[in-house]
Amino acid sequence: MKKFQYKLITLVTALTLMTTFSCSEYLDAPLENQILAEGTDYSQSQNMVLLLNGAYAELYGFQWETFPLISVRGDDANPAGDQEPLFKTDTYDYDRSFWIYNSTWLNMYSDIIYWNGAIEEIQKYQEAGASASKASQYIAEIQVMKGYNLLQLARLWNNILIPESSDPNALYDVELTPYNGVMQYISDLMDQAMPSLPNVHPNQRSDIRGGVTRYTALAIKALANLEMENYQGAADATGAIIESGEFMLETDYYQLFKIPGKLNNENILEFQYSDYGAESGTSDRFPWQVYGPQAIGWQPAVPGSSGGWGFWEPTEKYVKFMLDRNDRKRLTTTVLFTPDGISDIESDPDYANLPNWVTNITPDGDTFGNAPRYKFLSGKHYLPTTQLTPGRFNYGENKNMIAIRYAEILLVHAEALVSGASSSAMSADEAVNAVRSRANLGMLSGVTLDEVLDEKFAEFGMEWGVRFFDLVRHDRTSELNYGGRTFQEGDRFLPYPLDQQDILPQLKEASNQ
């Protein structure tokens, strides 16, 4: 987990303030950020970009536990492994003392505190004569990152704190902002950022390829308005992205989530990692081992390639849903089968005769055998061992993590339209059928909300909790009652982490109401 720390740039070197705090103590003492700030020569304007680079490092550096907590409660994903409170979270039995709740809270808030400080420092460079346009752009990019984290925090915890300074002690005096207020804040923040952002596809940026652009801000604005059920606002934002002509769906859905999919024309927000094409040395990588197979039964096509923890698996419900649709391309991309998983499906008389393309051997020759922790694994978190840089053997190394794709923009656009919005950019039928065409499925006419949500279920299995957020937003939570689970009113949001309630009185007060 991230230790809470504050970073500042001085001269040409990125320095880290070495004051760190345990997860439960990070608000107990002020951060001594003035020490470095007072030693910075702000006339050296060429160093301002280091603050932006550090901001991206924070965005890409979230810890392994954050994604599972965001994504675990939908009917597309199951936890696996040894974290019993995560299994309970998946069944809506929440333990406020579970370390992953506290760690995820800290991971995201430490980013936001850092980003606030980076903005403060950039403003000082600007006051000392640095380019106003560059300073405005860097601040706008960081605002988009902040908006993304706030979106995830609110989706998890409902009413949250919105820090506006780099001093974590200031959180003592921040009032909780209600859910819709957070979403409106994000929407307004994206409006504020957009005029200063590059008006290009992220992969067309010449300075930071794959970095934040106006379209990243529009996408986050759309998601925030969707959560507010401001469907016209969501349609307007997604419509602007569609009308730009900058994005297109990748025809090869399988490779989209592999090395060929890095900085793809479909990707709007992408966390970037690299081994720099070298067989050894520095490697910045996402913790893909969380989603990799246990050593038992793992037969990689490239001998010596490592597996992982086996902490994450698609649900049998999702597999059957995709089989019923004959949704082969997306199912074989999203789900990695084991022999036991195939046998479990076939034990149901309705699925006794599975097609021969349901196999535990991937198109790239990696074999997934039986293991104690899972029956299936996530194909979207899988990188073929044949795509590893020669000499590298870590599971998934050099693979990026896609956060927002154009397919989501199309289907959010359709969701907004069938929920009452209007748009001249594209009809709901056109948006849904564009995604279905890529999946080699037939075209629909007069699409309904149920059909849009089904398409999102198929398209975003194992991705960022999309399914869970869709179902609770539209009060279709009966779909979450499967495999012995019972979703009840009040299960939408997690309790505030106990460690944070002990530190921040406003959280404890809200929890006791």
Structure keywords:
about 525 residues, mainly alpha, Serine Threonine Protein Phosphatase 5, Tetratricopeptide repeat, 2 domains, two-stranded antiparallel sheet, 10 strands, about 5% strand, membrane, RagB/SusD family nutrient uptake outer membrane protein, signal
How would you summarize the topology of this molecule?
Elements (H helix, E strand, L loop, with lengths): L6 E4 L2 E4 L17 H5 L9 H13 L5 H6 L5 E3 L4 H7 L8 H29 L4 H26 L21 H15 L20 H14 L3 H14 L8 H4 L10 E5 L26 E2 L12 E3 L1 H9 L3 H7 E3 L1 H8 L20 E2 L7 E3 L22 E5 H13 L9 H11 L10 H11 L6 H8 L24 H6 L1 H7 L2
Antiparallel strand pairs: 1-2, 3-6, 4-10, 5-8, 7-9
Shape: globular
Strand line-up in the sheet with most strands: 1-2
**Total of DSSP H or I helical runs spanning 4+ residues:** 19
CATH fold-level topology of the largest domain: Serine Threonine Protein Phosphatase 5, Tetratricopeptide repeat
Largest sheet: 2 strands, antiparallel
Helix content: 40-55%
Mean pLDDT: 92
Description of the structure:
- The chain has about 525 residues and is mainly α.
- The protein folds into 2 domains: about 45-270 and about 400-475, Serine Threonine Protein Phosphatase 5, Tetratricopeptide repeat; about 290-400, no CATH class.
- About 40% of the residues lie in helices and about 5% in strands.
- It contains 19 helices and 10 strands.
- The protein has helices at about 35-40, 50-60, 65-70, 85-90, 100-125, 130-155, 180-195, 215-225, 230-245, 255, 315-325, 330-335, 340-345, 405-420, 430-440, 450-460, 465-475, 500-505, 505-510, and strands spanning about 5-10, 15, 75-80, 265-270, 300, 310-315, 335, 365-370, 375-380, 400-405.
- It has a two-stranded antiparallel sheet with strand order 1-2. Strands 3-6 form a two-stranded antiparallel ribbon.
- Helix 2 packs antiparallel against helix 5 (about 100-125), helix 2 (about 50-60) packs parallel to helix 6 and helix 14 packs antiparallel against helix 16.
- The longest helix is centred in the N-terminal third of the chain and has 29 residues, at about 100-125.
